[in-house]
Amino acid sequence: MSVYELFGRLGIRDLGARRISTGASVPVLALLVAGAVFLAVGSLMSSTFAELTVSGVAQGSVFASLALALVLIYRATEVVNFAQGEMAMGTTYIAYQFTVWGLSYWAAFFATLAIAFVAGVAVQQLVIRPVQRKSVLAVVIVTIGLLSLIDGVVLWIWGGDPKFMPAPFGNSVYHVGGVTMSLTDLGTIAVSIATVVVLWLFFQFTKLGLAMRASALRPAAARLVGVRVNWMLALGWGFAAALGAVSGLLTEPNQFVLSPTMMQPILIYAFAAAVLGGLESPVGAVISGIALGVFLNLLGQYGGYLKDSALRLPVAFAVLLLVLLVKPSGLFGRAAVRKV
C-alpha cells in the first residue's frame, strides 16, 4: 500500500486535491489573465516597457524564492520565520568565502545550498523544536533572536564593509526585436524557475515529499502511519533555508555588492508577496512575488511622483492592504473554517 493510500484511509482526502487546486477564485484568475494581457500588450507597444517587465520578473523571482521559503515554514508551524532573510544573507557570505578560497561561483553555489539545507535542519532541531510546543510568541521571539545572532556573527567574521563576488552570468546583453535584456536577468529567472520546478516535482511525486506535506497538513494522522513528523518539519526548514540561499545568491548579482543589510528590504517584499498570495499557498507566493517585482519596476518608470524609491515600499503595502481588505486570506488562500 502506498503512502498516499494510507493517508487517504486516515481522512487526508484534500491532499490529492491540492495537487491541482491553487485556491484561486474566478475573480483572481480573471485578474491574472488581465494582468498578463496588459503586460503582453505593453511589451509589444514599447521596448522600454518590455525591458522593465523582464527585469521586473527577474527581481520578482528573487522575492518569490524567499516568499516560498516563508510559506513552507508557515504551512508546517503557522509561524513566520523573521530570520529567513538573515539566514539567506549568512549563507551568501559562506558562498563568498568559498570564492575567496578559489572555488568557482557555481561550485560555491551548490556547496552553499547543501550547507544551507543542513543548517536549516539543525536550526529546527536545536533551536525551534524545544520551544515549538510552548506558544507561537515563543517561536517568534526565537526567530528574532536568531536574526540578531546571524547579524552579529556575519559582522564579527566578515565585517561590515561591502564585498564583491564573481558575476555568475557575465555582463552580456541580448537584443531581441529592439528589446535589450541582460544575461543576469535571464539567468536569475531561469535559476528561480528551475528551483521552483524541482521543489514542486519533489513535493508532488516523491513519497518523502508527500510525507512532508501530510506532516504539515495532518500531523496526528501522519504519525499513525509511521511518519516521523518532527523530522519532516526539520526537512521543511532545510528546504526553506536552501530556498533562502537561492534568493540571497541571486540578490547579490543584481545589487552588485554583498553587505550585511542586503536582504532586509528583500525580506519585507517577500513577506508582502507571501501575505498577498496567501500564507498557506506556495503557488500564491510565487505568482505574487513575480507580480510585485514587475509592479515595482514599472512604478519606478511610470509612477510619476511615486518614482522615488523611498515610496515604493509604502505603495506596495498600500496595494497589499487593499487586497487584504477585500480578501483577508490572500489572493490564493482559503478562508479558515473552525468548528466550535
Describe the structure concisely.
This protein has 340 residues and is mainly α. The chain contains 14 helices and two strands; from the N terminus they run H-H-H-H-H-H-H-E-E-H-H-H-H-H-H-H.
Give a written overview of the molecule.
- The protein has 340 residues and is mostly helical.
- It has one domain: ABC transporter involved in vitamin B12 uptake, BtuC (Orthogonal Bundle), CATH 1.10.3470.
- It is 71% helix and 2% strand.
- It has 14 helices and two strands.
- The protein has helices at residues 3-9, 14-17, 26-45, 47-77, 84-100, 105-128, 136-158, 183-205, 207-217, 219-224, 229-255, 264-277, 282-302, 312-326, and strands spanning 173-176, 179-182.
- The protein has a two-stranded antiparallel sheet.
- Strand 1 and strand 2 form a beta hairpin.
- Helix 4 runs antiparallel to helix 13.
- The longest helix has 31 residues, at 47-77.
- The radius of gyration is 20 Å and the shape is globular.
- The chain starts with a helix and ends in a 14-residue tail after the last helix.
- The model is unreliable at 9-21 (pLDDT under 50).
